[in-house]
Amino acid sequence: MRRSSECRELPDLAASIDDPAATGASAVLIEEDGHEPAMGFEKPVRVRSAVTRRYRLSIYDGVDWGELYDLREDPHEMINLLDDPGKAGLRE
């Protein structure tokens, strides 16, 4: 295995999402594999979240629920739209 001591600058993905005129990422995928159980979970959390300018969708491994938020209408993520029939197309 080759090792490198080079530091590499990562792109500012948040700026790509926050700035409608920016080019680059239209979504960010966040992968979390916890090491300890979190509140409400019996084992470490494994979750995948896709975040766009408009929505955040989070799918949890091993449970039958998730989260879908409209960040424009609900920036504080208070209303989970995952079971909203009108948002079915976003889940697929």
State Rg: 16 Å
Q: H/E order of the elements?
A: HEEEEH
Q: Please provide the count of β strands.
A: 4
Mean of residue pLDDT?
80
- Most strands sheet: 4 strands, antiparallel
> Beta-strand percentage?
25-35%
Strand sequence of the main sheet, in spatial order? 1-2-3-4
Structure description:
The chain has 92 residues and is mainly beta. It has helices at 13-18, 88-91, and strands spanning 27-37, 44-52, 55-60, 66-70. It has a four-stranded antiparallel beta sheet with strand order 1-2-3-4. The protein starts with 12 loop residues before the first helix and ends with a helix. The mean pLDDT is 80.
In short:
This protein is mainly beta. The chain contains two helices and four strands, in the order αββββα. The protein has helices spanning 13-18, 88-91, and strands at 27-37, 44-52, 55-60, 66-70.
